[in-house]
Amino acid sequence: MYNEQKIWIGKSGDKKVFIYPSMANRHGMIAGATGTGKTITLKVLAESFSDCGVPVFLADVKGDLAAMCRQGIETEDMAKRIERFSLNEEGFRFKTYPTVFWDVYAENGLPLRTTVSEMGPLLLARILGLNDTQTDILTVLFRIADDEELLLIDTKDLRAMLQYVSENASEFSARYGNMSKQSLGAIIRSVMALEAEGADMFFGEPALDIRDWLTRDPDGQGTIQVLDCQKLIHNPNMYSTFLLWMLSELFETLPEAGDLDRPRMVFFFDEAHLLFDSASKALMDKIEQVVKLIRSKGVGVFFITQSPRDIPDGVLAQLGTKIQHALHAYTPTEQKAARAAAQSFRENPEFDTYDVLTSLGIGEALVSVLDEDGVPTVVEQTKILPPQSRMGTIDDTERESEIKGCLLYNRYNEAIDRDSAYEFLQRKQLADEEEARAAAEEKARLKEEEAAEKQRLKEEEAAKKAAEREAAREEAAKRKEEEAAKRAAEREEKAKKTAVKNAVKGVASSTAGTVGREVGNALGSTVGGKFGRKIGGNVGASLGRGIIGTLFKLK
Predict the structure, then answer these.
(1) Number of domains the chain is built from
(2) Is there a domain that residue 179 lies in?
(3) CB 225 within 8 A of CB 208
(4) Residue 434 forms part of a structural domain
(5) What pLDDT is recorded for position 330?
(6) Residue/partner pairs of 441-446 with CB below 8 Å, 24 or more apart
(7) CA within 20 to 30 Å of 402's CA: 1, 12, 277, 330, which one?
(8) Average pLDDT, integer, range 96-125
(9) To 10 degrees, what angle do helices 236-253 and 116-128 make?
(10) What local confidence, expressed as pLDDT, does residue 494 receive?
């Protein structure tokens, strides 16, 4: 309850216990076992900050914070509590609070989205459950996307980018360091598994503009942003990483503020141990850094958990407001944890902190805050005030009415899928395929032309050889004809010569025989008379013909 310009938590006896708004950005803790009243305490603080004009964020894990948009109901138990605290004299009244509902899965609130780029590689690696090597590769992937001017908005952009780098791993490894296809494949599988859990709805646009949460209603009340986490809590990594992302966004968005009279915004993180479970050293360093530094931006963070030991010492040391509900201390381990929790308070000499801590009733808590000078107050056994809004949840009709009546409904309800890495790489792939197809067609065309040219040259060569063979045959036939003609001419010439020779021989022989006969007749007649003439004529003719025959044989 906002009272005396302070956040009134409850009463310790007749003494009011306050949180000074100027000290609220020193963060705080609400701890205690199940069923001890942590949710009521959270509601009272959230309502008080809203009345103070401070915007509030609530992580609603059980769905029992939704009724803050409805005024409380005066039950018999509530009437007794109001009387016990004399709240009527303090101006207590049941009232509604300006509430905006959000849901990563867009079922119980406005769709709450961010982009892959805004989430960043470190937080995204935690959601994906990557090891150190894969985280380094994811960081390099973001660098490549920046260098290539590719927008990483949703998970399909991330998958497309991973596939692109995997297909060109050798080229990128030479420029950015080794990135094995096995590691890239493992990251792709993790992204697909995350999509199956609904991350494809979480990553997208329009992305949340965290400045839309820094608002007040017309009456000056800070708006209460309620994130329905009933489904999200089943994915602890996504739940815790998302809450850390919101803090990081605030830290990066808001300017330095120094000390303010009241915070710019207050965050309440239920099941806070999930923020720190399984966190790597790098992530834990980032968490501690954000928690330490976001105070200077005027933002207060309250962690709600069962035991202070759920919160790392480095973070626990930053918490100025401590509200500790009862802790069970049945086992030695529980007793040790309870004793450590009791020792973390500034001792009150009026009671034993450990004994009180283990015997607190429902709605009671040990409370220590920072005074106006920033000094922790002594611990007080405090009865927590009742909330002014309705306790419990709301039905689906009431929730739908609140969602659709919200001023941010038209801005965030419809998803937008603008041109980003996926679309660019799709076009590039199609262009590459078209280029490859054109290159293949050109190669095939050139191959066909080359084959046709080879065939033409082959046919020309074959034709040339055929022509040469035909010419050779014709030349051979011509030579053969010429040789045959020559031989025929020679035979004819020889025949002519033989005929002439024979004719000459015949004439010569006849002449020689005649001459020989005449000579023989003359000689025979001289020697032997008529008889001698006859013998001499025959001998002379034979002798003349023999001489001519011998002469022609010599030729």
Answers:
(1) 1
(2) no
(3) no
(4) no
(5) 86
(6) none
(7) 1
(8) 93
(9) 150
(10) 81
Cα–Cα distance for residue pair 240/276, rounded to 1 Å: 8
Residue with tokens 């205690």: 32
Q: Span 289-304, mean pLDDT?
A: 91
**Dihedrals phi, psi of 108, to nearest 5 degrees:** -120, 25
Tokens 């046919």 correspond to what residue? 459
At residue 238, the pLDDT reads 81
Q: Is 63 inside any structural domain?
A: yes
CA distance 95 to 101: 18
Query: Which residue's entry shows tokens 């020559």?
Result: 486
**Token digits for 184?**
């890239």
Q: The tokens 């790489």 sit on which residue?
A: 425
Count the neighbouring beta carbons within 10 Å of the beta carbon of residue 327.
25
- Can you read off the two tokens belonging to residue 240? 């815790």
Q: What is the pLDDT of residue 302?
A: 95
Token pair recorded at residue 472: 């050779």
Please, what is the angle between helix 421-554 and helix 155-167, to 10°? Answer: 30
Tokens 């020679």 -> residue: 490
Q: Which residue has the higher pLDDT, 540 or 64?
A: 64
Beta bridge partners of 92: none
Residue 195 lies in a domain: no
* Least confident piece of the model among 89-103, 250-264, 446-460, 536-550: 536-550
C-beta atoms surrounding 348 within 10 Å: 17
| Segments forming the whole domain that contains residue 109 | 2-113+206-407
> In whole angstroms, what is the distance from residue 139 CA to residue 133 CA?
10
pLDDT averaged over every residue in the chain: 87
Give the residue from 21, 19, 251, 217 showing the smallest Cα distance to 118. 251
pLDDT band per the 50, 70, 90 thresholds, residue 523: low
Instruction: Tell me the average pLDDT across 358-370.
Output: 94
CATH number at residue 225: 3.40.50.300
Question: What's the token pair of residue 349?
Answer: 């000499």
Task: Count the neighbouring beta carbons within 10 Å of the beta carbon of residue 331.
Answer: 9
Nearest residue to 351 via CA among 41, 12, 32: 12
β-pairing, 380-384 vs 6-12, is: antiparallel
Q: What is the pLDDT of residue 273?
A: 85
Cis before 98 (ω within 30): no
Region for 129 from its dihedrals, namely left if φ exceeds 0, alpha if ψ lies in -120 to 50, beta otherwise: left
pLDDT digits (tens, 9 = 90+) for 301-339: 999 999 898 888 888 888 999 999 999 888 888 899 899
Do 191 and 130 touch, CB atoms closer than 8 A?
A: no
Strand-pairing partners, residue 193, are none
Q: Which two tokens stand for residue 241?
A: 């990483």
What are the backbone angles phi and psi of residue 463, rounded to the nearest 5°? -65, -40
CB atoms < 10 A from the CB of 281, how many? 8
